[in-house]
């Protein structure tokens, strides 16, 4: 069952159109991949879903409710969370302070907040070991784990990842993608923007391929490989 439905989404930056007429849906409990080369419109799409950039759409519903005119914080409260490109943890705060900021929606329920915090430390043991350490002193892979854990603190219903493998060593990338699979196994829904085609195709249930701001192809991994749609999009084909 699709819990996020988008019809005819567009994003403009002044005279430049970054996203043109995108239709997209996200099914509960699945990993949906959004692929494409640099400048394809992938980040603009997830930023629009989060409400971070101005956008227009014929329809944008989450769990059957119209969210098109909601501000970013209200979309977050409804369960839409973005882990942005470059991780963007708060470098001058400790690991635990970062996590507590991620759980601000639970601040009125200390028991639930503490329970969620303990779950994050169980899921990410390295964060427990370094909970008093400043985020700026963590490695890139550890910061990515912190960014994911911080997002999970708010108990989101859809987690959107913008280039989760960016700037990470190959071994760490494998760890992060194993974690994405574990998140799915725990019942989470993921929308993953990624240029590392091989890695994301190994975990995706359904794929959208973008080029020049438009969806050029969509389907399961096997369907797209048969039509060579992914290769065409990365080489600039229609």
Please tell me about this protein's structure:
The radius of gyration is 18 Å and the shape is globular. Helix content is 38%, strand content 26%. The longest helix is centred in the C-terminal third of the chain and has 16 residues, at 170-185. The chain is built from 10 helices and 10 strands. The strands form 2 sheets. A 6-stranded mixed sheet has the order 6-7-8-3-9-10, sandwiched between helices. A 4-stranded antiparallel sheet has the order 2-1-4-5, with helices on one face. The protein has helices spanning 42-50, 72-78, 95-102, 110-123, 125-129, 140-152, 170-185, 197-201, 221-227, 229-234, and strands at 2-13, 16-27, 31-35, 59-62, 65-66, 80-83, 158-162, 190-194, 206-211, 214-219. The two termini are 30 Å apart. The chain has 238 residues and is α/β, with parallel strands linked by helices. The chain has a single domain, classed as Rossmann fold.
What's the helix and strand layout?
Layout: E1 2-13, E2 16-27, E3 31-35, H1 42-50, E4 59-62, E5 65-66, H2 72-78, E6 80-83, H3 95-102, H4 110-123, H5 125-129, H6 140-152, E7 158-162, H7 170-185, E8 190-194, H8 197-201, E9 206-211, E10 214-219, H9 221-227, H10 229-234
Parallel strand pairs: 3-8, 3-9, 6-7, 7-8
Antiparallel strand pairs: 1-2, 1-4, 4-5, 9-10
Helix pairs in contact: 3-6
Short description:
This protein has 238 residues and is α/β, with parallel strands linked by helices. It has a single domain (2-234), classed as Rossmann fold, CATH 3.40.50. Helix content is 38%, strand content 26%.
Number of strands: 10
CATH topology: Rossmann fold
Order of helices and strands: EEEHEEHEHHHHEHEHEEHH
Q: SS-based structural class?
A: alpha/beta
Count of the domains:
1
Number of helices: 10
Strand content: 25-35%
Helix content: 25-40%
Q: Estimate the global geometry from the Cα principal axes.
A: globular
């Amino acid at each position: 069952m699709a819990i996020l439905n988008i019809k005819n989404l567009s994003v403009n930056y002044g005279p430049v159109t970054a996203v043109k007429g995108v239709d997209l849906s996200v099914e509960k409990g699945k990993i949906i991949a959004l692929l494409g080369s640099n400048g394809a419109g992938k980040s603009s799409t997830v930023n629009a879903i989060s409400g971070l950039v101005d956008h227009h759409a014929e329809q944008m519903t989450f769990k059957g409710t119209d969210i098109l005119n909601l501000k970013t914080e209200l979309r977050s409260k409804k369960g839409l969370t973005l882990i942005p490109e470059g991780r963007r943890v708060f470098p001058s705060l400790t690991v635990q302070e970062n996590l507590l900021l991620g759980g601000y929606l639970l601040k009125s329920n200390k028991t639930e907040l503490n329970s969620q915090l303990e779950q994050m430390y169980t899921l990410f043991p390295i964060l427990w070991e370094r909970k008093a350490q400043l985020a700026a002193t963590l490695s890139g892979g550890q910061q990515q784990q912190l960014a994911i854990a911080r997002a999970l603190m708010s108990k989101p219903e859809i987690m959107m990842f913008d280039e989760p493998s960016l700037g990470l060593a190959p071994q760490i990338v494998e760890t992060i993608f194993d974690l994405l699979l574990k998140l799915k196994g725990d019942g989470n829904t993921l929308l993953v923007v990624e240029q590392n085609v091989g890695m994301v195709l190994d975990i995706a249930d359904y794929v959208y391929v973008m080029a020049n701001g438009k969806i050029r192809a969509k389907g399961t991994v096997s369907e797209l490989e048969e039509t060579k749609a992914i290769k065409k999009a990365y080489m600039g084909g229609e």
